[in-house]
Design brief:
The protein has 180 residues and is of the alpha+beta class. The chain has one domain: 2-Layer Sandwich (Beta Polymerase, domain 2). Helix content is 52%, strand content 18%. This is Glutamate-rich protein grpB.
């Protein structure tokens, strides 16, 4: 499989949930170190988010990385250098986003990492960390989320956007619950 075929397979990869893998935190640390080495002083912080950051939680085996930048302009300036460093992105998709930029890393026809560039300390930054921390500290919410994700993955197996949209209301409800 050549690089273009690998990328196309990764882009259209079906949604699938896998049991927790103790390697996920190590894969995050490796990529965090690589990013900090390639782009010294460009990130204000780099955090492991998403289900792979929650011990024991089943997840899509894609490491979600939250990288804090000073401004969205600095995020935009990083897109091309990141694409030269084993990431890819859709400029059209990023143009539809407010408050963040998104990139994907892939290997052998599957997604391996999602990189979310967000202004450090912004509402988007705080919400993503708050949801991760909610799942880490509220086992019952994490297990309910896992069951829902498995159902959504079955329902939206070949529609990643619908799968992501289905998660949105759960995430908002979980954040409201923990704010009480």
């Amino acid at each position: 499989m050549n690089e273009e075929e690998s990328l196309n397979r990764a882009i259209y990869e079906e949604v699938a949930i896998f049991p927790y893998d103790k390697e996920w935190p190590l894969l995050f640390e490796e990529e965090r170190s690589r990013l900090l080495h390639l782009f010294p002083s460009r990130f204000l912080a780099i955090e492991h988010i998403g289900s792979t950051a929650v011990p024991g939680l089943s997840a899509k085996p894609i490491i979600d990385i939250l990288a804090g930048v000073a401004t969205m302009e600095s995020a935009d300036a990083l897109l091309e250098p990141l694409c030269q460093s084993k990431y890819t992105t859709s400029m059209e998709f990023n143009a539809s986003l407010t408050g963040r930029r998104w990139l994907m890393r892939w290997s052998e026809g599957r997604r391996t990492h999602h990189l979310h560039l967000v202004v450090h300390g912004s509402k988007e930054w705080q919400q993503r960390l708050a949801f991760r921390d909610t799942l880490r500290t509220h086992t019952e919410i994490a297990m309910h989320y896992e069951r829902k994700k498995q159902a959504w993955a079955a329902e939206f197996r070949s529609d990643r956007e619908a799968y992501t949209a289905a998660k949105t209301s759960f995430i908002q409800d979980a954040l409201r619950y923990t704010e009480k």
